[in-house]
Amino acid sequence: MKKIADFKVVSIHHICEELFEMEVQCKESLEHIEPGQFVNVMVPDTRQTFLRRPISICDVDEKNNTLRFYIRKVGNGTAKMSGMQPGDMLNIVYPLGKGFDTDSTNPLLIGGGCGIAPLVYLAKCFYAKGIKPTVLLGGKSAQFLTLKTYFKDIADIYLCTDDGTEGEKGTVIQHSVVNHVEGYDKIYTCGPQIMMKAVAKIATEKSIPCMVSLENTMACGVGACLCCVTKTREGHKCVCTEGPVFDVLELDGFIEK
Ligand SMILES: Cc1cc2nc3c(=O)[nH]c(=O)nc-3n(C[C@H](O)[C@H](O)[C@H](O)COP(=O)(O)OP(=O)(O)OC[C@H]3O[C@@H](n4cnc5c(N)ncnc54)[C@H](O)[C@@H]3O)c2cc1C
Ligand code: FES
After folding, report:
1. The pTM is what?
2. Coil, strand or helix: which one is 107?
């Protein structure tokens, strides 16, 4: 069940000018959270950002009632969040949307850019079930792959960067793991749409089920404004309530022929 609550910023870590991690804490116990679900954040004190901003849940610490976010500064809302200090408060609606299932015994997780964020908690959920997932992460350069530390003991991890500063040089699609996907029984991907489309195409060609997490622009986050709809084989669906995670076979026109 979704809740609305005030969370305290407990830490904020600036990775570079563009990226930061934020940990927030709720006074009450957290609701049950599925990997791949997201929150809708009310950015305080600004007229330019009166709509809440959707952010993926990167990690959950149920003992301390904390959520972790990994955020790229792209506009007013995320810039305002990056300037917050420990002790500041954020009003958050959570947990939103339908997340990833963990119905796989040999999963491959592929993340790019900020799309790496929800894969942290997904990998943790697999590991808690006794499954060590394979994780492939791609970024522009090494500083875009700092979330790799969270996968260290819970996944077999492979990296690539556009400029070759970490892992193989090139995109995830060019990586050697993607050239040998046959053994995996499900692929989970989140990142730039162009990357997810390419991953989904490869998965489908090899008859491997594939879950993608869409990042359509959102406003209400609860199925009321219809601004986030995507085309599916059963008609239009709201990404905020029916997704953001979809089985790629459910989506209409996602895989280019
Ligand atoms: C389900 C979901 C989960 C997300 N998870 C994360 C996350 O974990 N970390 C993170 O950094 N971002 C995430 N995003 C994207 C994030 O919501 C936007 O970057 C943010 O709302 C931009 O707000 P702003 O006020 O800073 O920028 P705005 O001033 O609103 O926009 C600035 C620029 O960012 C672009 N933008 C706005 N919204 C989006 C969007 N949804 N996707 C891509 N570009 C957008 C705009 O087109 C514009 O060019 C997620 C989006 C969705 C829908
Ligand atoms: S964001 Fe309003 S319906 Fe999805």
Report:
1. 0.96
2. strand
- Domain 107-250 fold is Rossmann fold (3.40.50)
Residues of the chain with CATH 2.40.30.10: 3-96
CATH 3.40.50.80 boundaries in the chain: 107-250
CATH superfamily ID and name for 3-96: Translation factors (2.40.30.10)
Going by C-beta distance under 8 Å and a sequence separation of 6 or more, which residues neighbour residue 137? 110, 111, 112, 116, 119, 145, 147, 148, 151, 157, 158, 159, 160, 167, 172
Distance, in Å, from the CA atom of 58 to the CA atom of 36, rounded to the nearest integer, reads 8
Q: How confident is the model at residue 165 (pLDDT cuts 50, 70, 90)?
A: very high
Contact yes or no for 76/21 (Cβ under 8 A): no
For residue 186, CA distances in Å to 54, 86, 102, 128, 204 come to 26, 39, 9, 18, 10
Of all atoms in ligand 2, which is nearest to the CA of residue 218?
A: 1
pLDDT over threshold 90, residue 45: no
Q: What separation in Å is there between the alpha carbon of 53 and the centre of ligand 1?
A: 7
Can you give the pLDDT at residue 243?
95
Taking the CA of residue 223 as reference, the ligand 2 atom at the shortest distance is: 3
Index of the ligand 1 atom closest to the CA of residue 49:
25
Per DSSP bridges, beta strands 210-213 and 59-61 are: unpaired
**The token pair that represents 8 in the structure block:** 């305290």
pLDDT, tens digit, 9 for 90 and up, residues 51-87: 899 999 999 999 999 999 999 999 999 999 999 999 9
170 lines ligand 2 (CB under 6 A): no
How do residues 9-38 score in pLDDT, each as one tens digit? 999 999 999 999 999 999 989 979 999 999
